[in-house]
Structure formats: structure tokens, C-alpha cells
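Table 4 source record.
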Amino acid sequence: MPVLQLKQNGNGGPIAGDENRPMASETAPSPARARLSPTILLVVPDQLIRGLITECLTSAGFAVRLGYRGDGEDAGDVAAIIVDLYMPRESGAQMIRAVQRAYPGKPVIAISGQFRPGLAHSDAAARELGARRLLPKPFGRTDLLDAVRAAIDQAE
């Protein structure tokens, strides 16, 4: 299973993949493409992990929105939500419940370095947390994209 590998660019900053390719956060999709692409909401506090996930998702054709508003007014175009269960100021389960209140019916994918690898396929553990899917870190691009696509397909 390939795992996202970090390299450093000439300025010492981390990038995913080819050193000469800009991070997705530096190359946002065009407004037309963003309207046509499923939007994934990221609630991930770590900037590096957020950047790597954004890179994987945008390169696969998804639009990415960072953070959440809390009022759910922007829920219409959100296809799925990725929540990192390690949150410095609140528990991940509390964050999942808050996101679900703001975006009812939207599938949540929980990521964490605390999950055991076999737990990723446990529907019972995911339901207990209030998530559709669990994804243990470190995970590869294929695992991430498979989880996102499965969550979106199950929601439709």
C-alpha cells in the first residue's frame, strides 16, 4: 500500500510527490470545475495533513473546502466531510456530532493515527463514532479516494 510521502521543496517546505508540482492549496480549481466536482469538507487541524489530503482530492477531481461554518448554510454542495479525530481543543467525537448537526445526512469520514489498521473496515466502530468510514493514519492515496467515493456512493 503506497503511503503519502513527504519531500521538501527548495525552500525547505513540505510537498507531496514531485518537487516541481505546486501544492493543491496553491492551485485551486476553477469556479466552473468546483461547481461540477463533488465538494469535500475538511475539518483537519494539522496544516501538513490538510495540504496532503487536499492535494490527493483535488488531483482526483474533487473540490475541497477547509473548515466548517457551523450553521450548515453551505451544506448544499458538500458531498462528504473528513474529520481528524485528534483535535487539540475538543474530542473528535464531539466534532463529528457538531459537523453532523451543521450538515445533516452528509457522510463523515473519520481519520486518526489512533485507529488500528483493521478497524478501518469495522462498520460498528464507525457507527459508534457517528462516521460512515474510518481511515487509520498513515493511509495511502488509494485508501483515501476509496473511502471518499464509498461514502459518497452510500449517501446517494
